[in-house]
């Protein structure tokens, strides 16, 4: 289980995380839902030590998350974290190696992932030659290449066309079915509802709801949370 406990982080006067606490159960797919600026990226970066919280802690299996634990995690950032000029296969192998794989294993896993995502023929092309959707897939593969115990994805659906969304959904479903622990952030309720076992709703740096998708839906209906035709939600 991953536990975020009482995370606080401010930037000047802006409170990005205001005592955020939630848990992600192993082998389940958790949707981290909230409007722009709610603190999703800051929370995810905290898991990876990319943001130093002012207070609070992040635990994996009841132990603090340090660099050696993080090597067993995979992170897909919202902003591109790829090297545009590097060939896809070399790039994935590189990510495998920085997560502790030896060269041969990383090369093999890189090719397997590219095949798996339908990009086998693009293995030697530089990332910048690929479409946005395909770059997003390579970014996903970079987070998965070392077979992480926990996969954290920041807005993996952003900017994808309907085919790209369907393909991303399929990979996440497959990975969840294989028992991987997955957290992904989104501000799209419909995607979270379609995919997730559990949901955490974050608003102004705090978890305002958390639970199974069924429990959240029932509570939302009771409280008459309005979902408009645009998918906008009353987050409070
Ligand atoms: P989005 O969906 O827009 O990415 P988010 O839920 O991921 O939003 P964060 O990016 O975590 O939210 O931002 C939370 C708050 O902290 C916002 O008000 C944001 O402007 C602020 N913030 C985040 N990073 C920084 C930073 N490096 N410097 C200053 N303010 C920041």
UniProtKB/TrEMBL annotation:
Coiled coil spans: none
Keyword Nucleotide-binding applies: yes
MF (Gene Ontology): ATP binding; ATP hydrolysis activity
Domain of life of the source: Bacteria
Keywords, sorted A to Z: ATP-binding, Nucleotide-binding, Transport
Sequence ranges assigned to domain ABC transporter in this UniProt record: 2-229
Family named by the database record: Belongs to the ABC transporter superfamily.
Record protein name field: ATP-binding cassette domain-containing protein
């Amino acid at each position: 289980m991953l536990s975020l406990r009482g995370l606080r982080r401010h930037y000047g006067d802006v409170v990005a995380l205001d005592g955020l606490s939630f848990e992600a159960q192993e082998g389940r797919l958790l949707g981290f839902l909230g409007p722009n600026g709610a603190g999703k990226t800051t929370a995810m970066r905290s898991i990876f030590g990319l943001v130093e919280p002012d207070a609070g802690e992040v635990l994996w299996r009841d132990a603090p998350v340090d660099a050696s634990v993080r090597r067993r995690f995979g992170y897909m950032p919202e902003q591109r974290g790829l090297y545009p000029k590097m060939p896809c296969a070399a790039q994935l192998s590189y990510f495998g190696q920085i997560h502790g794989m030896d060269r041969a294993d990383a090369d093999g896993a890189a090719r397997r992932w590219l095949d798996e995502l339908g990009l086998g023929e693009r293995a030697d092309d530089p990332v910048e030659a690929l479409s946005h959707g395909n770059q997003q897939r390579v970014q996903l593969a970079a987070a998965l290449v070392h077979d992480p115990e926990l996969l954290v994805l920041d807005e993996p659906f952003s900017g994808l066309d309907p085919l790209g969304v369907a393909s991303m959904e399929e990979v996440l479903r497959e990975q969840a079915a294989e028992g991987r622990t997955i957290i992904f952030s989104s501000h799209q309720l419909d995607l979270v509802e379609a995919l997730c076992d559990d949901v955490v709703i974050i608003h102004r740096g705090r978890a305002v709801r958390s639970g199974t998708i069924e429990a959240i839906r029932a509570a939302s209906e009771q409280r008459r949370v309005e979902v408009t035709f645009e998918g906008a939600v009353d987050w409070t």
